[in-house]
Amino acid sequence: MSLITSLITAVAEDSHALPMSPFGYAAIAVAAFVALGVVVWSYRDVANRQGDNVNAHSDHHTPGH
User: Which DSSP category does 18 fall into?
Assistant: First the structure.
């Protein structure tokens, strides 16, 4: 067996080892989705609040009223 073949075999055998358990990856994914959900949830009702301010501001500054 040549050196290249034995290196390829060694890399192929060791490439299946994960640095952490699959549950660790799942925990990271869940934490990321929860964090993104908190960010999205924090923007709730922003459009309604901004819409009220725009309407109130435009009512006072409409020419002819």
Answer: -
Prediction pTM value: 0.50
In this prediction, residue 4 has a pLDDT band, given cuts at 50, 70 and 90, of: confident
What does the block give as tokens for 36? 């993104």
Question: At CA 47, angle to CA 51 and CA 30, rounded to 5?
Answer: 175
Cα-Cα end-to-end distance for the chain: 92
Q: Tell me the C-alpha distance between 4 and 19, whole Å.
A: 25
Longest dimension (CA), the chain: 92
* 65: Cβ contacts below 8 Å, ≥ 6 apart: 59
